[in-house]
């Protein structure tokens, strides 16, 4: 597959360490967003199906379910909403960083972003995107290694040429360029 790679459409090897850091950041944010989303779903079921809210540190104990609108201490239901919302923004930043450095199409960013709004999807999306990123980085590394070997071989051949051989080769190349420009 390394033969069909466009070097302008892939990250340079110098970007690989940064991409790996961004990928780790993405993985952490995907897990945290997934857990917060599951908590949000549980909170929504309590709130809209049973008209209950989660109270933290109130008169009914450390953690209690109370009737909607009667929270007297910390409204954990509201905090779950707020924390998930803000952490989803961090998750989107992580998605963008991986997407941008890997130079993927827009559809991949949208797929990654969707992982934070559908329960359990962030875990699946994280697994798929991590696998895809690692596979592509390995392919790109193989490509750049092959390019480096090819450049070394070319340099060795050029160094082994005498001045007469180099002049003859330059003349052949110039003639070929002229021939192709007339086609």
From TrEMBL:
One of its GO terms (cellular component) is plasma membrane. It is a multi-pass membrane protein. Pfam families: DUF3817. The chain crosses the membrane at residues 25-42, 79-100, 106-128. It comes from the Bacteria. Keywords: Cell membrane, Membrane, Transmembrane, Transmembrane helix. Residues 23-130 form the DUF3817 domain. The keyword Transmembrane helix applies. It is found in: Cell membrane. This is DUF3817 domain-containing protein.
